[in-house]
## 1
Amino acid sequence: MSITLTSPVMVILGGVWALLALATLVVWWLAPAPDSELRQRIRSWWLIVALCSLALIFSRAAALVFFGGVSFLALKEYLTLIPTRQTDRRVLFWAYLSIPVQYFWIGIEWYGMFIIFIPVYLFLLLPVAMVLNGETQGYLRAAGTLHWGLMSMVFSLSHLAYLLVLPEGEYPHVSGPGLVLFLLLLTELNDVAQYCWGKLLGRHKISPTVSPNKTVEGFVGGVLTTMPLAALLAPWLTPFSVLDALLAGALIAVAGFFGDLSLSALKRDLGIKDSGNLLPGHGGILDRVDSLTYTAPLFFHFTRYYYF
Amino acid sequence: MGYAALRLTFFLLIVKPFLLLAVGVNVRHRDRLPAAGPALIVANHNSHLDALVLMALLPLRLLPRARPVASADYFLRGRWRAWFATRVIGIIPVAVGSGRSHAEVLEPVRDALAAGDIVVFFPEGTRGEPERLGKLKTGIVWLAQQLPTVPIYPVRLHGLGKVLPKGDWLPVPFFCDAWVGEPLRWEGDPSRFMAALTASLGG
């Protein structure tokens, strides 16, 4: 999967950098205050794009370490937010250790183990560790919340990384980094498109109790933007036919929407949306990867089922 | 000087990477921290990591002057622990909970401050329950009275008691917060001083 300067991945990445530069100019013009939220947001985007580009271009190992790091930060943020029992400290430690193991299965391309390690083995073994501690108070909640976090932040997100090792040469122009880039780009652009269409035309709230900013107009606008974008990018990065590209675009848009909503529901449940905390500033990573926890596994299985 | 290099190495190669990668401390108002000694940094206390975090918040050039106050009973027990605590970390050992007068217990702390050191001090006296501020002991009032010109920097720590609680040796990653409050100065009224300090430590 060596990438040369003329590979489609490099061309599209170049386009992303150009787009971000353009967005930066627009934001500078829209928000002149140096510490405004828009400017802070664009600065983080530069960091994300730079790190993703490096990880995708450098080597497979670098990309696996990078995505493993994202899983670690996401799981850490999740476990910081939810209530945990002090008796489960060692169990949580094992849960963290599952991250390098899960990404190791990807590195050695052991699909069978990759796909059952967390849903089967950890699902059964971590509760055993909890039971052996002997604390039954809050057992179901502890086991359930831990598994939910592992499934979302480690299992689901690691599908992004398994895309790296999926292509085996059936399609000469398709590379692992290309598939990852396709999914990342469309997931994030769909978020942006939904936000913009919602701001422009949003009238009808889609789920007022979970996320009052989500509207039918934003959702539909997102789907209708992401589908043609997918068709446009697919010939460069994927083996998809036009119809499949449109379907993949729709899948990413709908899945991304529900991933976002699911994390919003979690934050509502924990009461952290409105808590003007004495110690603010938690968060950030979950807000960025929320859509991906849904789009990564669904897009992965769509691609694997039809093409690999 | 040899120990200063050792401490710098320990912080650069072990403490800082550990805090950055495994813990992730979110610092608010780092700019409020002292740029020079003498200074007293006071914080709530739930974990052995507290002193390391507070020292790591300081710029590296101040590290040789940073000295956490710690229990002599605990940290001087055993030859290697004592060597590590006094030489590498640079603790000021004091006899806590001994029923002696403030002057007897805290004299070495006063001397370190008088010499221009940055002293890290936990006014609860010991590690309490995570996220619950225990009653502050009056030693801090005595110190402030003795050295009324030394600024006092309250830092509220959150989450470190989950990463490494009392009685455990295995750190488990969680995000943590350190909130640096406005510096306090001794103004002559013990009860008002204690109330202000308790409030800035989250009590």
## 2
Amino acid sequence: MKGLILGLVCVAGAAAVPMLGNPYYTGVIFQLAMWIALAQSWSMLSATTGYLSLGHAVFYGIGAYVCVLLTGSVPFAVTLIAGALAAGIFAAAIGLPVLRVRGPYFVILTYGLSELVRHVVMRIESALGSFGRMIFIVPPIEVLMWCMLGLATLACLGAWAIRHSTFGAGLSAIREDEVAAETVGVPVTRLKLLAFVASAIIPGAVGGLALLRTSYFEPGQAFDPVISFTIVTMALVGGTETVRGPILGAVALTLLSELLWSNLPQLYMVVLGSTLIGFILFVPRGVSGLVDQIAGRR
Amino acid sequence: MDTLLSGQLLFAALVSGSLYALVALGLNLVYGTLRLLNIAHGDLVMIGAYTAFGAFSLFHLPPVISVFLAAAVCAGLGWAVYEGLFRRLLANPTLAKRVEANSLILFYGISVILQNVVAMTFTASSRGYQYLDTVITWGGVSMTGNRLLTLIVASAVCFGTLLFLRHTLFGWSLRAVIERREAAQVVGVNLNRVQLITICAGFAAAGVAGTLVSMTEQITPFMGFPFTIVAFVVIIVGGLGNIGAGVLAGFCLGLVETYGIALTSPGYRSILIYGLFVAVLLIRPEGVFSKAVRS
Amino acid sequence: MNVTRRWATTLLGASLTMAAAMPALAEGDPIRIGYSMARTGIFAAAAPSQENAYNLWRDQVNADGGLALPDGTRRPVEFVSYDDQSNPANTVRIYERLITQDDVDLLAAPWGTPMHLALAPVLQRYKMPMVGNTAASVQLRKVAPGYIWFPTSAIPDQMGAELAKMMKAEGVTSAALLANELPYAQEFRSFLIPALKEAGIEVVVDESYPPDIKDMTSMLVDVKAKAPDAVIAMTYPSDAFLFAGQAKELGIEAPFVLSLVGPTIDAYRKANGASVDGIVSSAHWSPESDAWPRGKAFFDAYVEKYGEEPDALDSALSFMSLEILQQAVEQAGLEPEAIRKAIFEGSFDTINGKVEFEGVQNTVTPTGFVQIQDGKIELVWPAEIATSDFQPKQGW
């Protein structure tokens, strides 16, 4: 409950940032909300079931693609919803065979799928004679930021709801021992599929919004594997045991890279890489675990 | 149709295939013995390419000599990474439990560091040098010297490694670690030593591949990632940790790519490769060439 | 004590001598110019050709005493730059930061078409002028004129028409087209095909390939069998290396061989040596031109500073964009609206000759093609700016 109130206060504070009159901060909040939404969505599948997806860029990219195709013919809110739906439907369509694959194979498979879709979209675009698509009328940055903040909130609430439900309990059972869970009657396949779809929907809308921010679509960028890597990194650095984890991870890494690139323009990627390594080795429970530890000692 | 039967196409397929097999060999060794998803593998290829380029442009050392240097540099990196990071990771039960996720992020960090250190040292400008690019025609097949050299060296290293694994004591212990980790320890295999040597060997193989690639491709700090991907495709098709099948799969991928393009259109190249990759993972995740199906 | 004093005297003497040797060293409050650069990520290999030109320009301006203002005073130039990781979303953020947070006086362009397109609305919103450089797409024309300009004339529709004209003039009757699937190459291909048809040149091969292609043998065997007069390879840098190596291996005999992006990069010629003599590529600048004497000076200074040749397309455009900015500031000062007006109305003298804008586009510089001749980049088309005649490719 305390966490919920704190969260709502943060959201309200963030939503008021445009009133500071400095669009740079609005941009930072947009970025922050984007990564929270993505990392939290990812955690709905990967943190709960232990099925580590390295291909969430595919949902982001599909959302962006659907959004750019529809832009101009329907209102912008509709393009976002369509992007989210498309991502969800795609997840539902591929879910059954994909989720049969486990462990490191699942990691690599999700990555491969994302690349496959990227190349298919590239092929379609070149067959259509399209060379990068531009959007000319985009909503102002404040509106985009508020939408993104809404998506981040939705993702956090969704993740919280999943973890505190029988659905979530079923998913945890899968993570602990899938075979055992199945023998005691947990509907393993259905639960995994639901989690997969749930974790795909919000990234679809996020992809659409992010596209409107840059107003230019190119498959190579919309399906950029770096997006997938960043999501996984943020969630793991934050800690996957709690709903707080991905939020803290996204905040920590976004702010850290924001600070680093403005102050250490040459070295910041090296520092960022070292930070990741340090975190994995010395802070295995992530920022979230670190916060617990400090709070516990007080 | 004539094209399909020409030796020219076969040569191209074998050159690509041998390189794929070599790049994948290193990754497979590291995955097989340590169960680590090394997504920085392509960056080691990049380090090998820069070593060869540096040796050539500063000291006029031809790649046939600098290949040893590149292997040594990469093996040194392997040693540093193992002693500095992975010993700790594998020794700690909490960390080792999620070894996939953790090794993924660790290697992501390493990849970022390697790329940017090289970019700072050499700038990100693309580099290249001219070596052995005379064309030899033999039996109607034209071969550029450096591509022929690539085929010979890559095949030699791959098959040499296979022979070594099959006929030496160390090779046996390595295979034992891959197949039955706990049992190997019980019969007295020094796990730590095997792992250290394997990671050095795996990295060195990437360095050799990098040297070969540097003769024909542009060299940049960010060139590595496609090699990582190709290596993963190959070892998945062959079966994770199955060294011999991995080499075979590398050559097969070269054939599939070259003949696939010839039969359809170059536009389908990447769709073909990723399609194959995804299909194998969905239908037969233990690899096309593996004998036993693990439950 | 004595030693210290002697040292101090020596140092003082040395610095006085140095000061005397450089009377025009820039002084005063620096003028800050902001930009973002793809120092990491997919575009990183291409970006140094741009940033090197920026740094060279800054050093030259500061050595001259600084950037001249309308009142005749000069102020030194300082860059504020960040890495955009080859991601247009970051580019947008960085320019917002440069404008609102860092409060820079002027802006220089980032690398790449997507970045430029993403920036246009930002510049419009904050009313900050920026002269673009490394962007080329017909979509640029759709950008509403305002605060961004594109000095390039390597825009695919004009290039398609000009290339067809050039090919016809050289007696080409058949052509093979190989195109990367990335936007610039595809755009060029879409304009080239109708232009070739109009010029009566038959297209005997037309293939597209993905950017991560690793082997072109089957495509090139097909090209060789059809024996066209011209091979038009719409490459990006990495596949330009592949194309050159494999076309040589197979002994492609066409007298007219074009490789779209790549041949003007220094490393391309270092890796391929004399084999790539005769390759045609896209650029509208060459250091060899007598008409633009400053071009050679730029080339020499660049080679001296970086030990490699500037890219005839990106480096030249980047330097030009800052020359335009420099001349606009000299005339109009630092007030954004005044600069904007000056750029719209002015005529600029650059290393690539005169530049004038209409809307967002440079309407003066002709669309050209260069050819590697004896390892040098020579302009071979169109005739009015050519530095050499086209020479049919003689083997590899």
## 3
Amino acid sequence: MTDYTAYGVGDPVADTKAPDGPIAERWDRRRFEAKLVNPANRRKHTVIVVGTGLAGGAAGATLAEQGYRVVQFCYQDSPRRAHSIAAQGGINAAKNYRNDGDSVHRLFYDTVKGGDFRARESNVHRLAQISLQIIDQCVAQGVPFAREYGGLLDTRSFGGVQVSRTFYARGQTGQQLLLGAYQALSRQIDAGTVEMHPRTEMLDLVVVDGRARGVVARDLVTGRVDTYFADAVVLASGGYGNVFYLSTNAKNSNATAVWRAHRRGALFANPCFTQIHPTCIPRSGDHQSKLTLMSESLRNDGRIWVPVAKGDTRPPNEIPEDERDYYLERMYPSFGNLVPRDIASRAAKNVCDEGRGVGPGGQGVYLDFADAIRRMGRAAVDAKYGNLFEMYERITAEDPYQVPMRIYPAIHYTMGGLWVDYDLQTTVPGLFAIGEANFSDHGANRLGASALMQGLADGYFVLPATINDYLARHPHDEVLADHPAAVAVVAEVTARLDRLLAVDGDRTPDSFHRELGELLWDECGMARNEAGLRKALGRIPELREEFWRRVKVPGTGAELNQSLEKANRIVDYLELAELTCLDALHRTESCGGHFREESQTPDGEAARRDELFSYTAAWEFTGTGRPPVLHKEDLVFEHVHPTQRSYT
Amino acid sequence: MKFTLRVWRQRDAAAAGAMTTYEVDGVSADMSFLEMLDHLNERLILSGDTPVAFDHDCREGICGACGVVINGQAHGPERTTACQLHMRHFRDGDTIDVEPWRAEAFPVVRDLVVDRSAFDRVIASGGYVSVPTGSAPEAHATPVPKAAADLAFDHAACIGCGACVAACPNGSAMLFTAAKVVHLNALPQGAPERESRVLDMVDTMDAQGFGGCTNTGECATACPKGIPLSAIGTLNREYLRATVKGRGNRD
């Protein structure tokens, strides 16, 4: 019998690009040491960018401004719709406009600590440095950030930090930053420097002589599969949260681009580091297609509780005070309802597992504003949270002013992703990964308002500076469309689509995706243990086999076929899910978003095991259903010394 | 709940389309309109039929991908996007008509999916501030009065869904174009390109096949983000001003 939990251990992997020396000077040094491409020669280089979110949109616009020829793809009908648009809260920057003790070093420190000491110091420090320029750039683009009456930028504080460094545009910061990048990209499209392919999905990577030289992509309207060549390929295709089916990601966000790159040789790092957001609207039934997040600022004034007694089905207003359990306030008296995301999420799961959850299926806890309304008055609550209350009421038909909100955690962000070095280059030369698609900056847990910061840092400032070095050092001949490597990839992509259409079974693609997602959520969600992970690792190959036997994909490949798009993405989820569980099984410590029940402190908190696991796990693909090979990148902490988190 | 759906089916841009009737049973009041369509599609796949194609992505009302005409109204009876419209706003047993956006500038791609790339071309012709990465001054170098920042935000909230065009009897994109012009022209950062922006965007808008504005106001009523009708007045004023003043610094 096949052992689905087996894996090999290969040579360690190291980041050879980060300079040594004082950490604050490393980025300057790297930019100086990197070779440049003469401005007159840049137009001879083509760079492919996959995705148009904050990272991809910013990178495409910037590379084109610098004179490169950019060929860019997105599966949406317009580059303006990438899922960065849904980010609500804000973007961090160490501007210290509040004079409250913030600095580049403090943002660096907070991010390394918040990531539970599983991120690379050099990368995080650079991120904190660049945060300053991002705000300047976005303001100059006309991003309408919130302002004070004096005309200066407003900031607010966000979970896990003690300074006010989060810039925001009402509850739509992601939308406004993305539109800024989209508009900059549009200017280049109009100038003819970016060749934009909307409604076109990358389905595979073309590697020629060991270097990334292009992609195979499908026109989603005509079904045509084409090869596009370039001197370098940049993946900005986002995270893989949709492997869980129900997540806060957009429905079509998917892992195909990164997974196909992984299959072509790019190591995949820390797939088990997934972030669960505690304040989402619970599912209302089996028809649920996605989950909606509400800003966690709600926890500033809302009180979280469940009934003391199991199976108490009385309406919340009829449950007296002494029969309510404000469990976060009880367990964490000093932080109360404001404990970090992972702790709040896990506590909600525990009370629901005990049978004390509320709402449909008992999968929810109350977030109650009754005290806040009494204390602050309805008008003040409305001014602070009105838009969130309205959104909640629209979805649930319940008025949070009258009855407590119900919330439940949901998958929200993936810290893991393609392994990259300091230059954001993967282990396939010429293939770069930026934004959520890479693993680089957030360790095992991402702080609020840091995803937008990283996406824009990578896209506007890091990649455009580092890709020069690669292009200057590796002049390329043109690859012709009939190159055997390209022809083989096209044949493989086409064969897979044909095979999906040919099965003609009796189950819909979505039914498999739901089943996989439920399995992953149960066994590799908020809390993981060895037995559960082994169970999932046994079940996933069976599900994969069943998928190829029973899936039903209607229509043909030569037309707009949304069922075919879905099914093709599920093929990759069925492999990625397996690696995620294996990574979670091998990491027998708890850290950040990864909680192993076997690794707890006596009072039930996450116990990190630095002596064994202070490394990034970078996995090498060896074949579907075959044991992958683990390459470790040791993490060295010279500036921030690992400590155990405590919130009691 | 149970509904009779009459859905526009059209194989591709070149084919003729027609309304097709489906009975949908087992609908929950908590389903969004798009989840109801998912529910229908799951059944169509299993019965060997072709599922209904429709655009959607974030399903939380911000990406602007979704949009269908429901019983003659863009995004349906509530002032929101189709993904945030729930079936509890319909009566059990209702007959519901579902059609794609209808506008000359938005050709049908398939079923309920239309091509809105004309919007992208309007933005590309001037809906930006020319500021290459790295060239920005310090963010606090230019204070922006709060009123101007708020006005800019109110108009920047547009999600580019196209409901305004679908609701307009002329298929006009004035509200969409106006939203971007007001957003950028309200800010000091947008001032250097103030005239060229409005002239180029309006030219492109006309060239893309959008109709003229007759001040019907349906656009602002259909807008899920509440872009005010006054934006169109500002657009007209900006256009007139730019015509008189000339293209400004750009030429």
## 4
Amino acid sequence: MVQRLRVRYAKRGRLRFTSHRDISRALERAVRRAGIPVAYSAGFSPHPKISYAGAAPTGVASEAEYLEIGVSRACDPQRLRADLDSSLPPGLDVLDVVEAHAGSLADRLEGSMWEVRLTGVDPGEAASAVAAFLAAPSVEVERLTKKGMRAFDARQAVQTLTVAAAADGTAGQEPFPSCVILRMVVRHETPAVRPDDVLMGLRLVAGFAPPSPPAVTRLAQGPLDAMTGEPADPLELDRVGGDL
Amino acid sequence: MSVESLFPRLEPLLPKVQKPIQYVGGELNSTVKDWDEATVRWALMYPDAYEVGLPNQGVQILYEILNELPDTMAERTYAVWPDLEALMRAEGVPQFTVDAHRPVRAFDVFGVSFSTELGYTNLLTALDLAGIPLHAVDRTDDDPIVLAGGHAAFNPEPIADFLDAAVLGDGEQIAIAISEVVREWKAEGEPGGRDGVLLRLAETGGVYVPKFYDVEYLADGRIKRVVPNRAGVPSRVFKHTVMDLDEWPYPKKPLVPLAETVHERFSVEIFRGCTRGCRFCQAGMITRPVRERSITVIGDMVANGIKESGFNEVGLLSLSSADHSEIAEVAKGLADRYEGTNTSLSLPSTRVDAFNIDLANEFSRNGRRSGLTFAPEGGSERMRKVINKMVTEEDLIRTVTTAYTQGWRQVKLYFMCGLPTEEDIDVLGIADLAKKVIKAGREATGSRDIRCTVSIGGFVPKPHTPFQWAAQCDHETVDRRLRELRNSLRNDKQYGKAIGFRYHDGKPSIVEGLLSRGDRRVGAVIEAVWADGGRFDGWSEHFSYERWMKCAAQVGVDVDWFTTREREEHEVLPWDHLDAGLDREWLWQDWQDAVNDVEVEDCRWTPCYDCGVCPTMGTEIQIGPTGRKLLPLTVV
């Protein structure tokens, strides 16, 4: 392996129903079709050197997924971005590629900004549920994990949570049901707090229960900016030459 | 009339179901054509879950060929899991195609490929979800022509009431011909309506339209005769045979799904047909004669398939791949081409001889040397003569020992249980064979680190084979023999730990037997099972033997009569009017030979034994060698 490249990609539209495993198979095949000289691990069953950082759950769209590819021959990041993007199905879109410098990419992904679109919801009701959630010191929710039902706090990891009416012109207009958008910045912790955990929290504190499934998108993930509280570009350090 | 996408109505249901990605389409190399620009529209279904159906070669080939026709379009649909089925019923979302999410009922032809009879209940789910009446006689001009193909279509009688038509044999040319008939009929303003186009199809002699045939029964329940009930409908319907595989190098653009499927590889069919003459094997009987794809076309298809798909595994498919006349050259040529590229090659290996190990060694050059599979099928020398699987015990032990000495640590042996004339001793012979294999392997390698897995399938007598007259073994006997075999293996202190044992109970084989050799009266059982909630009968977690027996009793069908009853020579069989080219007298003679332990050679290397296929169908054996070689690929 002579070079590592860090890739930001999006998972859009119906491709949001891909699981993490689906994406990794699609990527391995796209890399082969594109003729990218990916490095392989040594040993009995060699695997391409592609590692993923913090994949969004199945059913959740994302504008900010990250992975790292090791290659056996130096590649131009822009060329690789174009080749990989054209080889992947529409909806898995490669947005940015940089050459990796020192420091772990996963360590830089401190938090995510999520957008949750809810249809058929009264904006006032959503706002008061959000206020109640933010006012609570902790909100214990339960989720079914591989180890069974698990209870944890969904409040502490939520850095910001705002609510707005949808700005796409359809909200509130008949026959379209009203639509609100929640935006939240959530720190990556263990156990991970996901947008649906926050929605569960809104239901617990305020009886807030949207009638249809939420459309969730990860807008960004990265190091949390101390000033704004929002995730910054995690590849910035690679662009300027690595961690100090 | 344009058709709107159902996706906006489906999408809200997807977060609530398992593996939603299987329903969204968008596979690499999939095709979405403009609805209004096509005149003939096909919905193709593989009646099982997406993960099983997507890789199916038959559907992929027809999908590609039909979409290549300028005025024809084809989309795909698969069986939806019960979780989505319930939501679709609640929300009124009909059966949809995964390509453009169009309603199946809006298409002209709904083509369903049956590799196995266990997909019949899934056909009914799809019809019902689509809003298409289950019974062909209830359909209107607004419903598609429901057309069955695949190996199970060689006896479509159990589902005859649910089908408008069925085709036998290779689908490439007949699918195009059907498109042409439908196109002309539509261009003429659909004269005669639904029956008008069905009659045109039936008159070709290549499409079976069940409702144009009446079945008459004898007082004892046997069939008296099957006769056409309309002028112009032929009394026999023949199978289709593609004669030059090199002219049909499909799939050219293999479908690559996002969802995980059961075969994650690019497959090339290296030949069709098999004349080894194994008497239990329906595929070997109904796909004759052998037609090879040439070494150079195989090489081109592999290169193209890898490029188009990005798969890192290539499978060379056929009924007995080691029998290709140039398989050694194919194996060496491909192994040379892909050395060091992390592309692995696989060959379903069943032949029991040293040559097969040479091939396996060649194929494992680029990948792992995991396990080898051999299929002696019968546990005793006598049994193997009955089924015409010509392998001696000596051959088998020598071959497996060679595999062990060449570094293969795991060998799988495949057998069947419940074969005609089988006795307990034939099944227990499997244990002796496995122990001898391990003993010889340990002596030859000086190592105890070798294993053998015995895998057993239940035998089901199939139409168009010499065993079509045979009594199927009851499941109690099969289960008892398998228990005794298991005990014999487990209780062996010396070798038991080195021998694995995999088997299924005998009950599903009885249902498969009912559906395989059933006639039109069995349709009522299928419908009752489906109405009672029967789905996905190929999946052990969904299959219910008790439900099948309960429903058969309810509709008055005697399962034993269809399964464990031996037929006499002149009984009219439900599929006798459907012609695979096999001479009925030859099949009967082969059945008599089976009972008398008489073997028959492969006609590729010995004189013709008059099975009847070539003269009836106007076909001939097409094999190499061509003498050509695979040249190294130029690196771009």
